[in-house]
## 1
Amino acid sequence: MPPDSDAASAWAASGAVLLSGRPDGPPLLPPGRAAAMARDLAERFAGSTGAPRLDGARLLSERAAFTGHRQRGRVSPGGACRLLPTADGWAAVSCARPDDPALLGALACADVGGDPWPAVASWLRGHTGAELAERAALLGVAAAPVRVPADGSRVPVPASPRPVKGALVVDFSALWAGPLCAHLLGLAGARVVKVETPARPDGARRGDPGFYRLLHAGHRSVVLDPAVPAGRRAMAALVEAADIVIEASRPRALARFGLDAGAAVAAGTTWVSITADGRASDRVGFGDDVAAGAGLVCRDADLSPLFCGDAIADPLTGLTAAVLAATAPPGRGVLWEVPMSGVVAATLDTGPPSPSLPAIPRGDGWAVDTGSCVVPVAVPRRREPDGDAPAMGADTEDVLRELGIPLP
């Protein structure tokens, strides 16, 4: 069956095709409508907020434009996630954080040293995807079985547009999805304050510096220590002052900081909660393993999975979260629950998988035959950062003083 022409054209224009498939083979066309949905979300956000119009499909490959990553088959373009066979299928397992090798060793019940992959691969071959999911949630490992796409979308429907220009956004999130949401709100004129703790700075600070600057230029950086009462009080006061709160933590983690989403919403705040699989789930997930777990994978001729794109669940969720954050019921607060797995699932057709359509050579590059036309495959393209990102904690005193919050 030929691909949907609009979906295929959006994928070709996104830059993500060059991040999909085997390193020694042609790029592959990803399944579903994620690129077309990203394009439409960006248009909707710009139309409702007056923000500059961005090419939403291009945002899916933007990080790779900074890092230079390309397709690597069953290793994600960034190298932190792998597709491995289980006793009953395949799984996506991430090793992205400094403590992940030890956690993966606990998963595999083995002493892994600095390389957990041989032990993890051996353990997975003797266990099912369901067993992996249960054990990964218990240990806080970012891993999931690769499932056939099902009708499991749980993405909220936006409400009425709300004013964004001048709104105070307090961003507790990290990495890509939440910061992209904050970045887009900042482009629409919101005042963005990024909050980190001394013990857990944003892991993206260890990534590409240009990409980090792109997402955080023009924001202000606050560091507060929730381990001390004064730090918790300052955090609570920031939330009380915020028009929009963005976070990407499991609810119990925020509860330890003394932050209550329900109370904030009751007071009129728009609260954006980004999770791997919903606020009721203990699952931990990053963009690559969440996307693959939801079924967003390319397929070899034998239907075995290959990575498509670079952590696509992250930018797709960031766009979705920004659209939701720019809306609210009139005169009320709202909790927008944005599960990354549900966002991805909403882009995929149900039913059995089929082999992915390979790109065809065209001049010095590649093209996709959509059935109605041949569309050139774009390379990932970067936007230049508009200024620098603040040093960690550089604005703590100024922000708290301006908002009348006692310094901890």
## 2
Amino acid sequence: MQQRPRPTGRRMTRQQYEAQQRQNRIAIAIIAAIAVLIIVAVILILKPHGGGDDAVATMVEAGAGQPAAQTEAPQTQAPQSDQPQAGGVDLAAMTGTEPENTVQATAAPAEEAPAAAETPVPELPPAVDEVFSTRNPDGGLRSVRMRVIGDIMFCQSQLVYARDSGYDFHNQFSMIADQLANADYTMGNMEGTIGKYKSSNYSGYPQFNAPDVALQPLKDAGIDFLTLANNHMLDRWSGGVKNTVDWVEQYGFAHVGAYRTQAEKDKPVIYEVGGIKFGFVAYTHSTNTMERRGTDADAVALVPYIQKADFAADVKKLRDAGAEVVIAFPHWGKEYVRTPDDSQKKYAKQLAEAGVDIIIGSHSHMVQPMGYQTVATANGGSRQVFTMFSMGNFISDHTVQYTDNGVILDFTVNEHQDGTFTCDSVGYIPTYTWKQNGAVTVLPSGKYLNERPSGMDDENYKRMVASYYEIIEVIGDKFQLING
């Protein structure tokens, strides 16, 4: 039998082997410690601007949430942990009172979304096809009817489709224009920057930048006012902020929430509508750390952050400048949830106590509840402050459940004999973003419940109907549902 060759080297003793193993374990421990330190350093570097409380500090996301569909890669879905949770919000819990029309809505899990019905017209709340009266029955007292829409986003697929038609965006708004124009004043949240920035291409997520011509169909559809304070306003750094404000003004929009200079930021924003002087404030919870990566030192000064805001001082400045009604636009909370978080509730209460009359929020990309807060007044009385936590998406290419719909908020501001103003006749129009053959079109879903739009397939029709019921589920039956 052939013998196995004997090893030529000396065998390691047991003591030598154990010593080598100890050295290996020590080396692995040192490498692991270094890796942990690197991870902690990265987290600290990416921590959101503004400090503030821990609830706000945890809100930084990479962008508006779901990335736009790219031409070379499939669209990314929202993370599972960010899907809607069952539960609701009670505005009365903020103040310990039970104001009229307070909402306590319950959001159903995704798998319980209602299916299309043969006759999909809900019994409650009753829908109306006629709009509210825009006049106060008290005669000479002033009255203004307003409509407000949620996030206006130009994602990559929308830009590509518009580019192929010479950057004409009108068809994306053609089916909703009547609803936008049917008010004395219409406002919306422009999420992203506008206008060419140096040699950069127009882009969707994660750094939104659309051509200036995208503003034209918004103006043609009847939008009067844009709020610009949001987490994407620094997507082209401070130069992009200034470009955006320039173009917004050139197309004739009133605006709040982004500024070209500190002097502009310090100036009270007041616009007169229907004889009433409205004061506006807007804040964002972050700018996705872009303020730390900009090329200009003044980037932080151009966008107001909610964590650093002095609400009472801001409201006083507006009142001293003549504002009779104050409207706040906070861009706040977490993305992809249908209920407000603790920071939203906290800031809503602080804004109301500071003297804001109407609070209209955004950022979640999903519709959240609305209702009234009751706050004490200086004379020992009380007043009600209407609060909408989030209107959801108005237009985007998002397809995750609850992100393909939103609402047009409808309300009337009425003057009373004692000189006070109230937010009355609150209603809403459910909207749906219809994607077909690369095109994105926003439409009033209630108008097409029983007769789908020409060319809409079964899948989109069923989803449109389901989204209609999802919105009603969140809003509840305390406010008027408008289908027209």
## 3
Amino acid sequence: MTKRYDEPIEVTADPIVDDAPIAFAWRGKRYEVDQRLETWREAGQWWASSEVTDREFFRVLARPSGVSSSGEIDADGFLITAGAVYDVYRDRVRGGWRLARIWD
């Protein structure tokens, strides 16, 4: 199941690896990124409106800060964690980062 938010977040980006998020803060809580799962970019006019967009998405596996990851890997090669999968994006037109959705 997925929940859509499209809310602003504060991102700590990795300065070495393409500014990918390594942590983010949302609604007063900090989340640590355990694994980057996917990246993609969406550009153009959003849903045939006049709004021009250029968004760089990162799908990440993250957990609340202070919650430990077991370090174990499941049968598909994914890290077993007490977190969830988050889609976050950098808005290259307006600037800033946003949380798009949570997969749980």
